[in-house]
Design brief:
about 425 residues; Jelly Rolls; 2 domains; 9-stranded antiparallel beta sheet; 6-stranded antiparallel beta sheet; globular
Length: about 425
């Protein structure tokens, strides 16, 4: 059986499409998902991302045809990685202050993607399948003969520094800063570095699958277009070298041995698949008359809840864009929000925080915590000559959730917390 080299990257396009792909001619059964004898002597294996009886429009599943099924694995033992935490229960009590963190430094010791994950804030409960966690990752080493399976939630990866090659059971994705990758719950993956080191952010989503937001009055075009999402074609590793499997399960990490590579899928079809997306393809929407639109117009993906319009998590970006509104304060206004906001900066400068908020850093404004432009940004925006203005060379993002975020012990005690963050508003004058 020939091996499709993982350097030969090929993609299919479309969000949530029903794909059919094979790395070996004839490996994909025709007309039957699990025939008595699968072509090439392969094994059929189904991965269900939703309950079997979920409505057709929401049902996510993929049939895989592999050289050995994933049941061939040793028993699991606890794996020591104390900084990847889960849910609100594993956080620490903190006051309702605005918070900001400096970037996590690249380690000096060899550290791969799994060992380099640090949970900053979390909410909800993975077992109840509600809520999410916001993490950062730092790495200077590729995952080689080891893979990770997250049974607690899907993982949205936002690179900030360094390119990644993500090998999954369905194929290979290469992502760079400015792009994102989403890995479905329960799908095995490993991360190789294409540069000396890497840093970025992860949203671990315990709730409903991320999907494209409804467009409402915007109409049929705008925001992120389905055609710009790329899913890999089938590829597999020829090697039979043993692998270590790291599984995240119920908020704990476990390790087991597999006698072969988990990336042995010769063909697959379905709509539960990893994908990548280039944020440069996002079609921004904004005001061309006056006033400042809500940041919801920058939503790329949403994980909904049973409350219409109130998300478990929204993934929102603030990309390069034109500002043209008349008689309008153009940065984000001062506000308090029932939704909680975790922000990161991939590159450039964020227009509401001209000092202190740097690429690789993060901020947290929880439910009803006041926040807004710092003193310098307010003064500059209030006195600006309102000509058309292009915000360029910038990319910030937000994980926004209906649930209050609880910081982890690492976030509060690692020395990264900026203790004087609130001073950025101290020069705002009181108007008598």
């Amino acid at each position: 059986m020939a091996n499709l080299q993982t350097s030969d990257l090929k993609y299919q396009t479309g969000f949530g499409n029903e794909f059919a792909t094979e790395a070996v001619a004839g490996a994909l059964p025709q007309g039957r998902n699990s025939p008595q004898r699968v072509p090439h002597g392969l094994y059929a294996e189904l991965i269900s991302g939703t309950a079997f009886t979920a409505p057709r429009a929401e049902n996510r599943r993929t049939w895989m045809y592999r050289r050995q099924p994933s049941v061939v694995v040793s028993g699991y033992k606890p794996y020591a990685q104390a900084l990847w935490r889960t849910g609100a229960a594993q956080g620490v009590t903190t006051p309702p202050d605005p918070m900001r963190w400096r970037p996590v430094a690249i380690p000096t010791e060899p550290t791969d993607f799994v060992d380099g994950l640090r949970t900053m804030v979390a909410n909800g409960d993975a077992d109840v399948q509600t809520g999410m966690a916001a993490l950062v990752y730092v790495s200077n080493k590729s995952m080689e003969n080891r893979a990770c399976v997250n049974a607690d939630g899907e993982m949205l990866i936002v690179p900030q520094q360094g390119r990644l090659r993500i090998t999954t059971e369905m194929g290979v994705l290469e992502v760079k800063p400015g792009e994102i990758a989403l890995l479905p719950r329960g799908v095995a993956f490993k991360v190789a570095l294409l540069d000396d080191s890497a840093r970025g952010y992860v949203c671990e989503n315990y709730g409903a699958h991320f999907r494209l937001p409804e467009l409402g009055p915007i109409g049929s075009n705008g925001l992120a277009n389905a055609r710009d999402f790329k899913t890999p074609v089938a590829a597999f590793e020829e090697s039979s070298v043993p692998y270590e499997i790291i599984k995240k399960y119920g908020g704990s990490l476990w390790s087991a041995q597999m006698p072969h590579s988990p990336f042995n899928v010769a063909a697959w079809h379905g709509n539960l698949a990893p994908f990548k997306y280039d944020t440069a393809n996002f079609m921004t929407i904004g005001s061309i008359s006056f006033d400042h639109p809500d940041p919801s117009i920058f939503t790329v993906l949403t994980s909904p809840t049973e409350s219409s319009g109130t998300a478990n998590c929204d993934f929102v970006i603030f990309p390069p864009r034109w500002l043209v509104a008349e008689d309008t304060f153009r940065p984000p206004w001062y506000h308090r929000n029932v939704m909680s906001e975790f922000m990161g900066l991939v590159q450039g400068q964020y227009d509401a925080k001209e000092e202190g908020f740097v690429p690789g850093g993060a901020s947290l404004h929880n439910c009803m915590v006041p926040h807004g432009p710092d003193s310098d940004a307010f003064t500059k925006a209030s006195n600006a000559d309102l000509k058309p203005q292009k915000l360029d060379n910038t990319l910030a993002f937000m994980f926004e959730s209906r649930y209050r975020f609880v910081p982890t012990d690492f976030a509060m005690t690692s020395g990264l917390l900026v203790t004087n963050y609130a001073d950025c508003w101290s020069n705002l004058l009181y108007i008598p």
